[in-house]
Amino acid sequence: MGREYRTEELAERAGITVRTLRFYRERKLLPPPRREGRIAWYGEGHLSRLRTIAALLDRGHTLGGIAELISAFESGRDVRGAAELLGLEETLAKPWSEETPVRITPEELADRFAGEVSPENLATSIDMGYVAVEGEEFIHVSRRLLDASSALVAKGVPLAAVLAAGREVRAHADDLAELFTALIREHVLADVLRTPADELTAEQVERLTDALEQLRPVSMQVLEAEVAMAMDRRVRREFEEWQRTRAGSTAEEPGD
After folding, report:
1. Can you say how many angstroms the Cα of residue 255 is from the centroid of all Cα atoms in its chain?
2. Burial 211-229 (b: 16+ CB within 10 A, else e)
3. CA proximity to 202, closest of 95, 92, 77, 70
4. Are strands 137-140 and 131-134 parallel, antiparallel or unpaired?
5. Is the separation of the CB atoms in 85 and 199 below 8 Å?
6. Strand order across the beta sheet in which 131-134 lies
7. Is the pTM of this model over 0.85?
8. Coil, strand, or helix at residue 134?
9. What is the annotated signal peptide range for this record (predicted)?
10. What Cα–Cα distance (Å) separates residue 71 from each residue in 91, 118, 140, 167, 196?
11. Which residue has the higher pLDDT, 255 or 190?
12. DSSP labels for 28-45?
């Protein structure tokens, strides 16, 4: 029969809590244990199943999707279709951003934003989710945003103004994300949203997964191009306005 484990021992070997183990069992993600009186005994198959669940969770799958795959295995249904459904779920769950968090000490933060790290600015950064406190250090959510904000401050822009602009940018970014989400929802996922998960065909899932993977870089290309062209237009207008103002002030100078 191989090695057997009691509940606490199995949970420890799998790296989870006893409560999580019982939750998985209630969700029928685990087969029932062998019982000997009031003692539940689990085997190597249970441990293997728990490690599989952990691996799938790490890849971004939900417990519902994992349960679908397990159910397909156990009932002899189309396991390939269930696995492809998990692939679609993984594609949907995959983060679109590729930001790298930065661990930074209070001293390093103060050096980056010389004279600008006030309690108010720090509280705003934490409230916006830019910065989190971990022990005696800070974790900034994005190296790119950290570098950009410190560059603006180095050029003389107050950190409070940078954070205020960040709030406005986030609001516009949310609106743009909703626009792209609506496009995907209405034109790419419409048939999926109308079809029960267990009725999706393998071809349907594969087509949608490929489409979503292609939409990631496309959406970023559109946003980057539009923002760059908007900056071109804005900077050109600012320069033209500056030239008109300068020409007007020169014309008004005495002695002309």
Report:
1. 64
2. ebeebeeebeeeeeeeeee
3. 77
4. antiparallel
5. no
6. 102-104, 137-140, 131-134
7. no
8. strand
9. none
10. 21, 55, 41, 45, 16
11. 190
12. TSSPPPEEETTEEEEEHH
* DSSP, res 246: H
Query: What are the distances in angstroms from CA 202 to CA 71, 81, 83, 198, 205?
Result: 17, 5, 9, 11, 5
Report how far residue 28's alpha carbon sits from residue 64's, in angstroms, rounded to the nearest whole number: 11
In single-letter form, the type of residue at position 224 comes to E
* Helix extents (H) in the chain: 7-14, 18-26, 44-58, 63-75, 79-93, 106-112, 119-128, 143-154, 159-187, 190-194, 202-251
Domains and CATH numbers, the chain: 4-93 (1.10.1660.10)
What are 170's two structure tokens? 């986030």
Cβ count near 22 (within 10 Å): 14
pLDDT band (50, 70, 90) for residue 160: very high
